[in-house]
Design brief:
Elements: H1 6-29, H2 36-61
Helix pairs in contact: 1-2
Length: 62
């Protein structure tokens, strides 16, 4: 993820948040087959945000 551009990170973040929304909807309706995917989607969002915040902090130092 650290090799991704800022735009790619934003697109990935948007995709993961949409996926998480869909998974939560499936969970609420009882259609979710792989409940572990919820946890994985949350972790991926956290990783993307961590990389983004690290870049912002680095940019603020300069």
């Amino acid at each position: 993820m650290r090799d991704m551009t800022d735009e790619e990170l934003e697109n990935a973040l948007h995709d993961r948040r949409q996926e998480l929304f869909d998974l939560r909807f499936q969970s609420a309706t009882g259609a979710l087959e792989n409940s572990a995917r919820l946890k994985l989607a949350k972790r991926e969002i956290a990783r993307i945000l961590t990389v983004r915040h690290a870049r912002e902090a680095k940019a603020a130092q300069h």
